[in-house]
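A protein record pairs a chain with a discrete description of its three-dimensional fold. The following entry can be read in just this way:
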Amino acid sequence: MHRTDHAAFSETIRLGCSTFPEIEAGLFVPVSNYTIHFENNETRTDMKRCPNCNRTYTDDALSFCLDDGSPLVNAESDPNATLVYPPPRDTSPQPPPPPSYNAQPPPSQNQYGAPPPPSWGPTPPPAPARKKSALPWIIGGLVVGVVFIIGAIVVLALIGASVKKSSDNGAISSNLGSNSSTSNSSRSTSSTSSDDLLTTKWSGPDNDDNKTRTYEFLSGGDLRMTGEDGTVYCGTWTQTGKTLHIDINGYTREGNIQGQRIEGTGVVQGRPFKWYAVKSSEAASTSSCSTSSGSSSSSSTSSANLLGTSWRGPDSDDHLNRTYDFQSGGDLKMTGQDGTAYHGQWTQSGSTLHIDINGYTREGQIVGNRINGTGVVQGRSFTWYATRQ
């Protein structure tokens, strides 16, 4: 056998009988006493064979049979050993096996090959949560806010109306039905609030001319002011707590009583000024105020324009009409639109009107048959006017 034949046959032995289908089909009969000779007429003694199928292998790296997996053993070193091949495979058709109820399913195609793909897959990511629209919440919040604001306005309006009504029905209303002919009872505000200044004497300068003036607070709300040159001026005064109001010589003075000192402001001919006065140890004169010419007090003289007249008009804060009856003795009767009557005090200096009633003040300017005025009630300013009836 040539070298090439030796090599081919050796490769045939290594690959197994499946390489030649003719041998596998039993078309060729194995030859006995066949000796494999290689180059240089040497006989291989290092071959391995399978003890079950007697297949021989020349690859020293193999340790198991490629057909049935049996461990390989060294082949016999007898050069005349006969190669034994397995019996031919029975190719006749076989009857089908009887049905089995416990038959196992045939192995899958990939039982001995690559592992089948896993029956599970990666967990799909959770679907993103659907965002809810914030519009309903916004609309609901706006509705609640509007309802709250409207409710607060209504509550405040009711409280304001209640406070104003209770204020109108306050301390002065207790004077309803009192006899206005009696001076002391009708002028309760003046007599009661004047206890601090009544029959006292004060003196001090104005800052615009630095001239000292003396103030004598007489009974009945009369005021005698004596200038530095001895000139006497008669006017009226009212006191509410620590607050002083003076109408004299055609202008007004306001003051704040601080123990033995009065700090005040005034306006004369449209020019503001400041003044102060210190309490004197001397008492005021008990005589009524009169000028050097012997004329009567300015209270009775200055009240001639409004005395015995009736005026009517509204306030700007509630638009309710009020009627003002300027009575003798400085008494004022104010009747509300609902018929409620309030009693207070009034003073007039020329065209300037001052009213103290129901715990607050009103100022007015007389212009013909109309009075234009301002007022402050519970710290809230308002305007008012009245026309002569």
